[in-house]
Amino acid sequence: MTGILVLAGTPIGDISDAPPRLAAELTRADVIAAEDTRRLRRLTQALGVQPTGRVVSYFEGNEASRTPELVEALAGGSRVLLVTDAGMPSVSDPGYRLVAAAVEKDIKVTAVPGPSAVLTALALSGLPVDRFCFEGFLPRKAGERLSRLREVAEERRTLVYFEAPHRLDDTLAAMAEVLGAQRRAAVCRELTKTYEEVKRGPLGELAAWAAEGVRGEITVVVEGAPDKGAEELDAGELVRRVQVREEAGERRKEAIAAVAADAGIPKRDVFDAVVAAKNAARSTP
Questions:
Q1: What average pLDDT is seen over the chain?
Q2: pTM score
Q3: Tens of pLDDT along 4-21?
Q4: Residue 186 and residue 204: Cα distance in Å, rounded?
Q5: CB 184 within 8 A of CB 194
Q6: How far apart are CA 257 and CA 244, in angstroms?
């Protein structure tokens, strides 16, 4: 008989959030694949359990090379437990390759549900949560980051991102540029930890706040684009939306038509706003 792969959610901060099944799986597993074996040791000590299975590292650097070894163990009947540093494996963490490989071999995959920074941030954000999409980490390079944001500029679902604290100010500034400085957002920092903080406000204000420096684990929740015709857009916003589309590769005529359709207004209104902005730029010394 083949074994079973167990994906186990781990606390994102407060250790008491660990699900009861996690302790049981840690003692039951034949093999424990951990993103960081030192953090796994601290986790087991905090839970008061002593694993009896073999412990191996499984992180971004060795995920591809170690996956076949773990699949072989599963094929031989082993119970393999996968844990990452925090949250659910494979959600912006190692795990996808192993799950895909196990599924391909018709090996059973199950999960121990646990804390999630994505869902926790959504619940605390104060933004709509009936429909959302998780975008993970944005690219580090500025140009690639802007391109990725342009792809979701008209996305109406709430957006969720992970970000490193030292890049947060640049990311929020890029979001304000592409999505609009008045788009509502929430920066969730150190969730479930001692210094938990949720900073809410328009992207422009949040970018200025983050410029002073922010520490800790960060999850950013951003309001989706408004429904067509749901708002009255001023000329500046119409021009900005046309520019975003042009920078993404659309011809100006196509960009104007798309912005007009999204806003539920005549194309002539958008065209006039673009021409006026162009003329104003020419006349500025």
A1: 93
A2: 0.78
A3: 999 999 999 999 999 899
A4: 12
A5: no
A6: 13
